[in-house]
Design goal:
Largest sheet: 7 strands, antiparallel
CATH class: Mainly Beta
Radius of gyration: 13 Å
Distance between the termini: 30 Å
CATH topology: SH3 type barrels
Number of strands: 7
Oligomer: single chain
Order of helices and strands: EEEEEEEH
Strand content: 35-45%
Number of helices: 1
Length: 110
């Protein structure tokens, strides 16, 4: 399994035996040193903060959702259960600066 940046997966996050949708934000790497992937969790609880990116209506999600970059984490790829779909490129272009904001990193302009 080689999840790619921008894909939305259902993942076992170990929270009360629940699976949650997450968006993969790891760089695409054909030969990573560990079987880990970096993700941002998706949630329906929109707090309208700069740590959230509102997602458009997606056919594979039942409710309006946001990507919560404050929840940035890594997970073993074996805990990714199934791919739900892909985020539009424009949304990933919004998530990356939100991650940079959360980590207080400078982003180079494209």
């Amino acid at each position: 399994m080689n999840p790619k940046s921008g894909e939305v997966w259902l993942a076992d996050l170990g929270l009360a035996a629940k699976t949650r949708p997450v968006v993969i934000v790891s760089r695409d790497d054909a030969n990573p040193p560990r079987a880990l992937t970096i993700y941002v969790p998706l949630t329906t609880q929109n707090r309208n903060s700069p740590y959230e990116v509102t997602l458009p209506k997606l056919r594979f999600l039942n409710k309006d959702s946001v990507a919560n970059v404050q929840g940035l984490r890594s997970i073993p790829t074996v805990r990714l259960e199934r791919k739900l779909g892909d985020l539009p490129t424009i949304v990933m272009k919004q998530i990356k600066p939100a991650i940079a904001f959360a980590l207080d990193l400078e982003m180079k302009s494209d």
